[in-house]
Design brief:
Chain lengths: ~70, ~200
């Protein structure tokens, strides 16, 4: 696929989070943001279909619904 | 729709020679047409497990989602293999738990290339080429070649013995208790060196 370039302006806090996530996941900024966009679209599609996004903790058996705007 | 095309090589079994083939980063209408007209009659005649796979509806369903990528292998104007991968799944192997990988949702090789369908297969290496493409996608995404998949029973030995993937055993959460296989960065490097 052909690729396009854009400039992204982030606050210092956002850049710190981006850097931290990149280090944690071993990804560069482009790869991490592409991954985030795919995931955001997948979640949004499921929510539009009426699904809920839940987090479940095996240890405590607790379930929490994540509210996605 | 247009696709980027890379050259890949298959083995033509009748001559034993390497032949040039094309790897497309999209499943085009002509690939779906080949599946419908050329593959399906052979697959349905043998009542294969995956005979119900409908690539047209799969492509329609997944094409709007960025998390899915599509690949097709074409040789001598015929589609030899089709694959859909998911790029937002995560690893299960303890040494790479929670890291991203490329998950092979569907991979199908043309029936005339599969040794358990015909005693006289046309091309070899179609599955290997597609798996190598999945590994390359994983590398391009920064995921270092990590891939995962659920295997149909007849392909278990291919993924375990020929591809060197780790067999995590039957997955009770999947219909048919299919075995889940995962490839680490090291296994991917070894696979690419062999291929």
């Amino acid at each position: 696929m052909s690729k396009r370039t854009m400039t992204l302006n982030l606050t210092e806090r956002e850049m710190i989070v981006l850097d931290d996530l990149c280090a944690k996941k071993g990804l560069n900024k482009t790869a991490l943001l592409r991954q985030a966009l795919r995931l955001y679209q997948a979640v949004d599609t499921r929510l539009e279909q009426g699904d809920k996004l839940l987090f479940e903790n095996d240890a405590t058996n607790a379930k929490a619904e994540l509210m996605v705007l | 729709m247009t696709a980027n095309v890379s050259n890949v090589y298959l083995v033509e079994v009748s001559s034993g020679q390497l032949v040039k083939a094309e790897l497309h980063d999209a499943i085009l209408p002509r690939h779906l047409d080949h599946h419908e007209r050329l593959w399906k009659p052979l697959i349905q005649a043998r009542q294969e497990e995956h005979g119900h796979w409908d690539w047209q509806s799969k492509c329609r369903h997944y094409s709007a989602q960025l998390s899915y990528e599509f690949l097709a292998v074409e040789c001598q104007q015929e589609t030899q293999g089709l694959m859909i991968v998911n790029t937002i799944r995560r690893c299960r192997l303890p040494q790479q738990t929670n890291k991203h990988l490329v998950y092979v949702e569907y991979l199908e090789v043309a029936p005339w290339n599969r040794p358990h369908v015909t005693v006289d297969p046309k091309y070899r290496l179609v599955g290997t080429v597609m798996l190598a493409a999945a590994i390359q996608l994983s590398i391009d995404d920064g995921n270092k070649g990590r891939i995962g998949l659920h295997s149909l029973p007849q392909a278990d030995t291919f993924y375990r013995d020929r591809c060197g993937m780790t067999d995590l055993g039957p997955d009770a959460s999947i219909f048919g208790n299919l075995h889940y296989f995962e490839m680490t960065e090291q296994q991917a490097t070894q696979f690419m060196q062999r291929s």
